[in-house]
Structures are given as C-alpha cells and as structure tokens.
Amino acid sequence: MISSAHGRGRLAHAFLISGAHGSGKENLAARLIQLVNGGGESGGIDLFGEPVVVETPPLDELESGWVRIVRPRMKSRRIGVDEIRDLEQTLHLAAPGGAFKVGVITEADRMNDQAANAFLKTLEEPPQNTLLLLLTANPQRLLPTILSRCVRLPLLGGRALLADGGAELVAALNAAASRGFGTPVAALHLKAVFASFLSDFREQADAAAKAAEKEEVSAYRDGTDGRWLKEREDFHKAAAEAEYLDGRNRLFDVLMAWMADLLRMKVDAGGLDFPESAPALRGIAGSETEARLLQRMEALDSLRRTLETNAFEPLAIEVGFLKAFG
User: Fold this and answer.
1) Is the pLDDT of residue 229 over 80?
2) Which of 16, 75, 160, 322 has a CA-to-CA distance to 284 between 20 and 30 Å?
3) What angle do the packed helices 166-178 and 226-266 form, to 10 degrees?
4) What is the pLDDT of residues 24-74, one digit of tens each?
5) What is the tally of structural domains in the chain?
6) Percent of the chain having pLDDT more than 90?
7) Three-state secondary-structure class, residue 238
8) Which tens digit of pLDDT belongs to each residue from 146-177?
C-alpha cells in the first residue's frame, strides 16, 4: 500500500511506526528509505529467471547527508531540542536530483517537551521532498498534536524475549528450577530471582528520571517559577513509573514464555522460545501433568492482572509465585 501511494505521488510526509520491541520498526523504516530513494526493490533477474531482491541493510547503515537518524543520546536517554534543530537544518537543505530528505526519530516518545514542540513545527510545515518517520513502542506518550499529523503504522508481534535482561532472567530461572520445582521453597527461590530483576528495573527508571529532571532544573531554574518545576518533578516521577511498568511487563512476557516452553515440551509441540533451556526443563516437563502446567500458566496470568490493580506488589508477587511454581 505504501509503495502504491509512492508510485502515485501520494505518499504521506510523516509516518508513526509503533510496536513492541522486536516487531520490526527499524526494518520497516529502512525499507521506506530505500523505497523513496530508489533502492531495495529489485536487483534484476538472475540466470534462472528469478528476481534478485536486494536485502534491506540495518537502519543505521542508511544514514547519510540526506538521511538523519536521531536516537536518545543524553545520560537520561532523552532526545533534546538541540538534536531536533540539527535534524531540521538538514531537512531544509536542497537534496540533489530530487532525492528525499528523511528524518528518522527512534524511541520518539523520549523527546522532551522542548524537542517535541520544536519537531511539531516541522511536522506542520514540512519542506518539499521530506519524509519523517517516528518509531516508538509507546505511542501514547507522544503529544496528541503529533499523533494527529502522522499516518499510523502499528506493527504486531515482536518483543525480543532475550533482550533487556530477558536472557539473564531465563538463566536465573533455569538455575533456580534445577534446585527444585513444585514446592514452596522452589517457588520462593524463583520469586527472589524475579524480585531482584524488578528492583534493577526500578533503580534504572528512577535514575533516568532524576537525570532528566536535573537537566531541566539546570536549564530552566532561572527562567521559570517553582510551580512549573514542581509539575515537571511530578511528570518525571510518572515517567519513571511508566518505564518501570513496561519493564515489569517484559519480564512477565519472559515468565509466560518460559512456562509455555514447559507445556510445549510436555506435548512434544516444538517451537520453543528458549531452546537452549530444554535440557534444564526436560525433567520438570516429564514430572508435571498437562493440566497442572495449564493451572500454573493461569496463575501467572492471574498475577499479572492483579498487579494492574492497586494490590501491594511484593505480597501479590509472593502469593502469585507460590500458586504458579509451588
């Protein structure tokens, strides 16, 4: 559909590509860049009459004088207004041969307020032959005025389970389970492993929020009143909480996939999410019934839903793990 719109000269100037980690956002952005600047569609015909398709390179390899890729680079992992202004300068230059100028903002939800407002001006009045691509796993954090000016491309699937601590959690789960499974002691061992990862996520989210708040206070202390700074303090606390909850959800994805692997092994279904864990899990799968494994998965799902309420997190996790792993 995008290729057809481009062929008719009706391509939109701004796309918001959203989806979970691992859903292919950067790959789609790279394919769009190749589309508008004439690469990647076909490499001709081979000796056997089959079309030769040019592979899409990683997004960063496509960066050039007319393709700019903006990523969070500050200590607080935010995108600042200076980076957006640098991007705008490139977009307002004339590209040779009618080439498209492309601006890609990865993790677009990490633009601070000043950067988002600066980018909005370019979004409202884009220079000629400009393509703007915003990539994010959290579109709800973007300004409504930015959302309304982009064609939205939500991608399904994805979360790379072993990324962002997933591999370490799986290894820790395997080690804890090897000491026993299906007893209260084993359940509490697994709970302790999970809680330690949650604690790390909390510390990282709080540190990033404090760094972002410190940058704002340093920049705007003398130019605004205390009420605004207090509002920003509340904003950063909320941002840290949202970041923590996203991390917790990713850990639950890993937990559910790990438990699902036990069920797959029980019924010889194949398609394991963590095939390297098979030796560690084979004994557990052999000793559990299908019905019991399903009950354990339902207990994990119930725990996840409970944590979306105002339940006291440490107690809910302990009770949930006793039901799921005890």
Assistant:
1) no
2) 160
3) 50
4) 899 999 999 999 887 655 555 666 666 555 678 888 888 888 899 999 876
5) 2
6) 29
7) helix
8) 999 999 998 866 667 887 788 888 988 888 77
Nearest Cα residue to 32 out of 8, 20, 16? 16
- Bridge partners (DSSP) listed for residue 15: 133, 151
CATH number of residue 126's parent domain: 3.40.50.300
Q: Are 65 and 97 in contact (CB under 8 A)?
A: no
Considering the domain boundaries, does residue 159 fall inside one?
Answer: no
The 10 Å CB-count burial string (b at 16+, else e) for 199-217 is: eebbebbbebbeebbebbe
Do 147 and 182 belong together in one domain? Answer: no
Give the Cα separation of 134 and 66 in Å (integer).
16
The pTM (predicted TM-score) of the whole model is 0.57
Q: What's at 92, amino acid-wise?
A: H
Phi, psi of 79 (to 5 degrees): -105, 120
In DSSP notation, 135-188 reads: EES-GGGS-HHHHTTSEEEEPPS---TTTTTHHHHHHHHHHHHHT-SSSHHHHH
| Two tokens, residue 151 | 């064609």
- Domain housing 98: 2-154
| pLDDT over 80 (residue 91) | yes
Q: Domain end: 108, 127, 154, which one? A: 154
